[in-house]
Amino acid sequence: MKGRRVVITACSAITPIGHTRAEIVDSLRRGVSGVKPLREDHLLSKFIHSQVFGTVDYPVDFDFRRTYRKTMGPVAYYACQVAKEVLAQAGLPPEFVTSGRLGVAFGSTHGSPTVQREIYKTFFGASQSEFRAIGAVDYLKSMVHTTAVNITKMFGITGRVISSSTACTTSSQSIGFGYETVKYGMQDAMLCGGADEYDTTTVAVFDNLMACSTAFNDRPRCTPRPFDRQRDGLVVGEGAGAVLLEEYEHARKRGAAILGEVVGFACNNNGGDLSCRIAPESAKPCVSASRMRPWRPMRSIS
Amino acid sequence: MTREQITLEILNIFSREFEIEQPGLDNDLRETYEFDSVDAIELLLGIERFLKSELTHDEKKMAMGIRTINQIVDYVEGLVRVRGREAHK
């Protein structure tokens, strides 16, 4: 099945190295790092070997009405802000946004661990009256798909909802599955991306798997270092990123600015080791399956 | 407990929990203030704290059709009456 062309017509991100495109590009050019020392949380931080975190240390003006804020933990704030910026940038007509032809593919590592901690504190607390204090909104704020659902709620989006929760691959899967949804005609546009909030729980779980960087705790700006001989693991971070994927003819007809084109996607698994860092036997077939042939000869990918 | 006391507490809950100040007592809460089903469940929690008494499942179901502040006050008055009768048995 050939499928339709899918283009990118808006993007936004809140990152440890900046919020706007100008800030992010400037930081990249100047080699600015957003990795900072892990903040003391008086709970897990003293047990974690990795003492670094990709930190958003500037204020973000969320300005959300209470009717939206009430179901949002920190991760959903990030998600809704980048979604808001993407929709504003894309300039889609309001009637299209709510028409059912726009869907959402958005996720996070595990929803809001900040809210989950409060719920579990109540669960394991001694008082039954405290147990009844868990509110209706606590689950909505904490749940794994809180980012996608809050985005649909805030903007009245009624199309497909895909909420990947696959840790480091969440956002790329969101974009890939969103791409396929548009390519094969299930939707004409998809708002895709991912978000995560600041929380030491996430660092702790990867630290226990020995997947985190630990050799640069005294020099946070020197890690992570992908492709480097001295690379020693991942660094957990907070923030969000979103793109609007749109069917090419739909974008062209309405005169949308086209920022790029998604030409292929594939997803597979090594079917085995869950913390294996390198799986070349899985990577090459995945690239082949993405059908990027018109753009790069397969033999050039090693 | 008087109707005025109940009304005052309900208005306090709306101000504190929902950031809705001085709502009209007969305004449709959904139409005027986007008060939705999630807010209704939070309101019931606030009423339980106020009465220091857990609502039964049937009492919660009875609340689902409520649309105005005056209807909420009527509902809470009913709960107070039931609890007063129970206390005197």
Give the key terms.
A: 302 residues; alpha/beta; Peroxisomal Thiolase, Chain A, domain 1; 6-stranded mixed beta sheet; two-stranded antiparallel ribbon; 12 helices; B: 89 residues; Non-ribosomal Peptide Synthetase Peptidyl Carrier Protein, Chain A; 70% helix; globular
Number of self-contained structural domains of chain A? 1
State the distance separating the first and last CA atoms of chain B: 19 Å
Order of helices and strands of chain A: EHEEHHHEHHHHEHEHEHEH
- How far do the termini of chain A sit from each other? 27 Å
Shape of chain B: globular
By CATH, the superfamily of chain B comes out as ACP-like
Return the CATH architecture of chain A. Answer: 3-Layer(aba) Sandwich
The main β sheet of chain A shows up as: 6 strands, mixed
Q: Give the CATH superfamily of chain A.
A: Thiolase/Chalcone synthase
State the share of residues found in helices of chain B, binned by percent.
55-70%
Largest sheet of chain B: none
Q: For the largest sheet of chain A, list the strands in their spatial order.
A: 5-4-6-7-1-8
CATH top level of chain B? Mainly Alpha
Largest interface: pair, residues per side: A-B, 10 and 11 residues
Q: Within the CATH hierarchy, at the fold level, what is the topology of chain A? A: Peroxisomal Thiolase, Chain A, domain 1
As residue ranges, the low-confidence spans of chain B are none
Give the integer mean of the pLDDT values of chain A.
90
